[in-house]
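Batch manifest, entry 17 of 40.
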Amino acid sequence: MRADARRNHERLLAEARAAFADRGADAPLEEIARRAGVGIGTLYRHFPTRADLLNGVFQDALEELLDRSRVLADADDPCRALVEWLRALAVHAGEYRGLAHALMSASYDRSSALSRCSDPLREAGERLLGRAREAGRVRADVSIGDLMQLTNAIALAAEQSPEDAELTDRLLALTLRGIEA
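Output type: structure tokens
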């Protein structure tokens, strides 16, 4: 990438991060381009779709989640490691309004640019889930896809109640422990 194209790319990502944090994943692309000091055509040359832009914005967070899964893979308590990673996933999905919904949709749409985020996360989660299963701490019929959907649903619920800072933890604990007394 030429130096000016690289600068445009980085400015677009920086403005998209700010816009998505402030206005959600549906922030107007025209506004992002304007704030980055480029035309909408430049935005589309770098990021042909909104999903491509979302994918670009979330690459840093994706790497952090993948790094976290690698650290947790050697934890003494594999079930606790899985829960800790799912919590980190829920926190990530809740950082930007609309991200949890976009991630849920991407899990069903293999052609989505966000599936490039979803696939490595699914693989990382599967490794943690496999260890928890091997330790006899998780039922055999539990899938990482279901756990990730539940985690995104929890993030979506927490997004609707921003005043309740503990909601994500309560819902995740409830989900993972079940409702049996």
